[in-house]
Amino acid sequence: MNKLLKLSAASLLVVTGFSVNANTLSDVKAQGSLSCGVSTGTPGFSSPDSSGNWSGMDVDVCRAIAAATLGDARKVKYVPLSAKERFIALQSGEIDVLSRNTTWTHTRDTSLGLNFAGVNYYDGQGFMVKKSLGVNNVKGLDGASFCIQAGTTTELNLADYFRSNKMDFKAITYDTSAQTKSGFEAGRCDALTSDVSQLAGLRSTLKDPSSAVVLGDVISKEPLGPVVRQGDDNWFNIVKWSLNAMIEAEELGVTSATIDRTSTSPSVQRLQGKSGKLNEHLGLDKNWSRNIVAQVGNYGEVFERNIGMSTPIQLPRGVNQLWIKGGILYSPAFR
Amino acid sequence: MAVYPLKETKKAPQSQTKVILWLKDNLFSSTSNVLLTLVALYLIYLILPPILNWTIFDANFDLTADNQSCGREGACWAFIYDNFKMFIYGFYPQEELWRIDTMFGLIVVLIMFGSWIKKSQYRMHYIIGAFLIYPIAAFFLLYGGLGLEVVGTDKWGGLTLTIVVAAVGIVASFPLGILFALGRQSEMRIVKFISVVYIEFVRGVPLITILFMASVVLPLFFSVGMDFDKLLRALIGITMFQTAYIAEVVRGGLQAIPKGQYEAADAAGLNFLQKTTLVILPQALKISIPNIVGSFIALFKDTTLILIIGLYDMLAIVGAATSNPSWLGRNSEGYVFVAMVLWVILYSMSHYSKKLEVRFSTEHKN
Amino acid sequence: MFIKLKSLLYNNEVRAILFQILTVVVIAYFAYQAFDNMMLNIEQSGIRSGFGFLNDEAGFAVNDNFFLTYSPASSNLQAFYVGIVNTLVVAITGIFFASVIGLIIGIARLSSNYLIRKMATVYIEIFRNIPILLQILFWYSTALSILPSVKNSLSFMDSVFLNSRGLFLPKIVMGTEFYLVLASFVIGVIVYVFIKKRSNKKHDDTGIATNTIPHFLGLIVLLPIAAYFVFGAHLEYPALKGFNFKGGTGLSIEFFSLAFALSIYTATYIAEAIRSGIDSVDKGQKEAAAAIGLKQSQVMRLVVLPQALRVAIPPIINQYLNLTKNSSLAAAVGYTELVTIFSGTVLNVVGQAIEIIALTMLVYLAISLVISLALNIFNKKMEIKGK
After folding, report:
1. Chain B contacts in chain A segment 68-87 (CB below 8 A)
2. For residue B16, what pLDDT band results from cuts at 50, 70 and 90?
């Protein structure tokens, strides 16, 4: 009924020529849930289990935003999107934020009317081949066929890399990553190429995971992060700082278990919302960052839970480690 | 006068008995026929046994088996049994499944009641009433509101979604198609121009581009932030598409009516609305009913395209079910099952259409 | 004065004009508002507009390519052309095979042989009542699982290879020798047409039928082959090097499964159209033909089919159009035709949905218009010749 009213209102708006100014935060609060664009099933980043519950790195970003804005990390509506429709869904307003292992590129940032609110995983493009091929690096794949997902930076990077190295290749483009996997298993292509994190996840879902190996070569930079529409700076800040809150929490050594312990450190107190006015300019409740850490966890917890060494994906922290521990995760100052 | 004793009638020679006679006539009547029969038998031998083996004889009917114990020589029907709810209901929450069952049950009851009061004079009233009230009831059952919990359209899927999309497409495109058909026949040049442009444009492009347009371009016409439901967009696209085809079918019916009917209605002093609803349309629709049913059958088949824009009709559920790690690689079973279900539905519809055709053509001979 | 005005209102013509003006005003108003809103939305969200993106570098590779040159460095416009060509190639291939299969099945439907008749009916009933998308997906996954891998390709005379990636054929090298062979083919065709015309005239005048099949074989088949050997034109053979076949030309498995599924599905409709065409031929024609001693095959070929086709051609051409439109479902199997390349990949990279979808629709509209025009010309020709 609500949607019917909205549609009639929208038709009226078309008639009267009004265009409502974008205020995503009030929309989200009015709706009572966050509309979050995710993938159709990428293990470790956003995938549903058989009861329809979503989990993953990108899913946890959505939950963090919901915890910050609505106080409850469960109030998220997950919208599965293919690579082709993800930007359109965001541009048209169908979703409030896109958290779908999307690479931050210049073109996407400037010409699609979108803003990248940060990076939640620094990735790179890699290759997966069958062990039986006996290939151990990319240079040995001259003339090979690759299964790729259509409409991704993967397609473009592959073409660029092979062109600059004067190698030949054939590209088989499919709509979803599940199709690329079945093509790879059926032998339609010799190698699968995608972000290394996705390859690790895909490999764990093969009929025989030990038959495939992810090559060590990484041919591009793929910083993955959440995306929002241009024209709503406050929402942009909210998403950006929700992500930063999780990184800052890990840097301060605060976990979901310890977030509520009294602390003498002013930084921790600001994170807990007990001091400072960090929430006011965002238009959020003062417990916004505390809710994030309490309900979702800090970055390290999120990482370990979804793609860490205890999961089938088994990705090492690598560069996705705090700057004080040799990685490049660095939250701007929380004050 | 000579009397001739009647001879005993003998039985017909063996080669004239039913079965052998039939075989001779139908299968072996000439050399070319014999060759054809042999070719046909050989083709049957090539095609039928592997199919039967895979689906029945080598298949695993143990419904409690899992992916490993099922084996690969034959079909694994446990896969279908395990995911049956998903195929039929999509991602609808378990506790609310009764709502979908009620919705389907209502249709069956309504149809049975409708055929029971076939001879009643209130039949038309009943049909129109049912057509108006049932969609509203079905909407509330499926979507929610009015005390029932809201189930978002992203949870709709499977056979339910296929039927909902087809039904809405049919019901919504019918009046619109009639309008455009009348518009195309109109003497008002602008109305005719608009109708012709619309019909020819929509019929000249593939349905998938219309769906893309509805799902991508339509939201841009409204202000940002308006949550334009994905299913709604698909329904608009499908309705737009079907309207053009129904318009053409009804136009064929309109053209088949003798011009005298129009003139007589004018002579009797009926205005446009009365003329159309009382004289022209009933005749036109009756003539074009077989083609309208044919168009609906095509629509039902076309609903599978919504999988390309991300909606989970029955075909897309196969992909969803096989991406579950516990059931990898069972695509064939999924496709065969969906093919069988859809085939049964479509075959029944086309069978019914043939019966309609016979019924209406005899009516005309009077 | 008032009476005149009132009577004007009841005048049908005036009302019609008023109604039309009202309609135009209302539609124009809505269209203007919608358009305005759209431009505002686009401006606000920062998406580019205009067709400048066509000159940008495409940056992605395309698997199937016939006739045109394309590389990831080509422009989006070039990708657009490749998409159009790919659509037309799969459509024409599908149309050809659908017609052949449809003709066979259509005639089989009326066969006196019970088995053949029933099998044709079963074929039609099965493949007509399963959605085309499902058939495409099914044949693709079947082809992938049945055909051998590249290393174990089925080969024919070491020059034609079939495997799960596609069919690989030798390619004709376009040198001067090839043009000589082509010239001999053209000469052969011209001479044959001339011979056939003369033979037809002789048949019309005297009733003596000459068999032109040997002429056909000699001129159109053997002559070019002889020229090939005499002039030594080259064929480039495909060879397995590393991962894939290099050299030669090939048809991908995606192309095959799409063309195959489209042919099988559309053939059912063509078979039905041919059957109803044959049914529409007066029974007397068949009886008269049998009475003058023509054989079954001659009856079909000389008397029934020509008349049947006249009735059957309009729905068949309609089916050709449907097949072309159904080729847009290639996204399901990854065949790179217009919709997958342009409304898929390019759309996602560039983001300008309206321009891209409009261009795609325009291409299909153009194809439909051409086919409708052909149909109209055919109908006009048939009218003059007909009853």
Report:
1. 77, 79-82, 85
2. low
Q: How far does B341 lie from chain C, in Å, by closest CA? A: 9
Which residue stretches of chain A have pLDDT < 50?
Answer: 1-3, 6, 13-21
* CB spacing of A88 vs B324 below 8 angstroms: no
Residue A217 is encoded by which pair of tokens? 């070569």
Q: Residue ranges of the domains in chain B? A: 91-155, 157-356
C154 touches chain B (CB under 8 A): no
For A165-217, write each residue's pLDDT tens digit: 998 888 888 877 778 888 888 888 899 999 898 888 888 878 788 889 888 88
List Cβ neighbours of C314 (8 Å cut-off, separation of 6 or more): C375, C378, C379
d(CA C351, CA C355): 10
The alpha-carbon gap from C252 to the nearest alpha carbon of chain B, in Å, equals 22
Multiple choice CATH, B157-356, 3.40.47.40, 1.20.1560.10, 1.10.3720.10, 4.10.800.10: 1.10.3720.10
Beta carbons of A19 and B310 less than 8 Å apart = no
Per-residue pLDDT of B248-264, as tens digits, reads: 999 988 888 888 988 99
Q: Among residues 25-64 of chain C, which lie with CB inside 8 Å of chain B?
A: 27, 34, 37-38, 41-42, 44-45
Residue with the larger pLDDT of the pair A11 and B34 = B34
In angstroms and rounded to an integer, the radius of gyration of the C-alpha atoms of chain C is 28
Query: What is this model's ipTM?
Result: 0.83
Q: Is A98 exposed, middle or buried (0-12, 13-18, 19+ CB in 10 A)?
A: buried
Q: What is the DSSP letter of C210?
A: P
What phi, psi does A187 have (nearest 5°)? 85, 10
Subunits with 3+ Cβ pairs within 8 Å of B are A, C
pLDDT for A1: 41
A239, part of any domain: yes
